[in-house]
Automatic annotation (TrEMBL):
Record GO terms (molecular function): endonuclease activity
Alphabetically ordered keywords of this record: Endonuclease, Hydrolase, Nuclease
Organism: Teichococcus wenyumeiae
Span of domain HNH nuclease: 215-267
Protein name in UniProt: HNH endonuclease
A family per Pfam: HNH_2
Source taxon at top rank: Bacteria
């Protein structure tokens, strides 16, 4: 379990009500931002403290790794200065019993502030602007939890029961599906095909089956036991052609599909399996993936390689 601090004064209400945190992938000029990159480091079960208007009013558990998602429409004008393409992390928020004002006990926090990218100014206790998501040392997090008394201890116990849940990401998919259902520019056949593709069904599955014959990892070939999985996620596709493209898919056993969807595994262009350092190798092995050495699953089509580049960059969980 890791601890994080999100500074979201402008979007606090949207993110708490929507049960997520969101940031653009890059700054406007295309450069990286450590506090944006941090969204790719959080994992299910991690704790996030919500800081807005000088107070911590919520704490929550991450329920899913970051997913590539567009800027939430509910941000309105507050989000116009950010890029459209971003990361969304679902969070199960819980209101704290009494808001904490870190400035009021900065003397207690100061010895435990991060040396780099601290969310608070050490001299004043004020929040640092332009730092969206910061990693917290365990010692600093413990001070905050102690300040919350019995509630803090009970809150942490709940984290051990946090499962893997799409949460707000699923709601993004739901909203996109509804928009497609209402799109007057789509004929009924295409509309149905694109909606079914979200669940790996219909025309998309037939297109994938024309390219793939078995699960690349387990070699299971009985198609009743396989899922048609998008390489570039359905929500991230820039066109319906991408959503239906058979080269944007793999036939995978259910356990492998989950690993691939969550970014715990990916594939190099030459077919070598990539295993995320964010998951224990023994757990991966128990799910049917050889780890020493990871197997080569064979060549991919040029189209598949293009989509796999997106997966390695935007879905696969790299090391911290």
């Amino acid at each position: 379990m890791s601890f994080w601090w999100v500074n979201h004064k402008q979007t606090y209400r949207h993110e708490v009500d929507g049960r997520y945190i969101w940031s653009p992938k890059t700054k406007r000029d295309g450069s990286r931002n450590v506090s944006y990159d941090n969204l790719r480091r959080v994992l299910p079960g991690d704790v996030v403290f919500s800081y807005a208007d000088g107070e911590i009013r919520q704490a929550g558990f991450v329920t899913r790794p970051a997913a590539s998602c567009p800027r939430p429409s509910e941000f309105g004008s507050a989000g116009m200065r950010w890029e459209q393409d971003g990361w969304m992390v679902p969070v199960d928020w819980h209101p704290v019993p009494q808001p904490l004002r870190p400035k009021a006990f900065i003397e207690e926090l100061r010895p435990y502030l991060p040396e780099k990218y601290s969310p608070l100014i050490a001299s004043t206790g004020d929040g640092v602007q332009h730092l969206y998501l910061a990693a917290l040392p365990d010692t600093m997090a413990q001070v905050l939890l102690n300040r919350l008394g019995t509630w803090g201890s009970e809150f942490l116990l709940q984290g051990h029961g946090t499962g893997d849940d799409d949460g707000a990401v699923r709601e993004v998919d739901d909203a996109l599906e509804e928009a497609l259902r209402r799109d007057a520019n789509l004929d009924e056949t295409t509309r149905r095909a694109v909606v079914e593709a979200r669940r790996g069904q219909g025309r998309f599955r037939l297109n994938v089956e024309a390219v793939e014959q078995a699960c690349r990892v387990t070699r299971v070939s009985d198609r009743r036991l396989l899922r048609a999985s998008h390489i570039k996620p359905w929500r991230a596709c820039v066109s319906n052609a991408e959503r239906l493209d058979g080269h944007n898919g793999l036939l995978l056993s259910p356990n492998i599909d989950h690993l691939f969807d969550r970014g715990y595994i990916s594939f190099r262009a030459d077919g070598q399996i990539l295993i995320s350092p964010q998951i224990d190798a023994q757990e991966i092995a128990r799910l049917g993936v050889a780890v020493e050495p990871p197997p080569n699953v064979g060549a991919f089509s040029p189209g598949q390689m293009t989509y796999l580049t997106f997966h390695r960059t935007n879905v696969f969980l790299h090391g911290n």
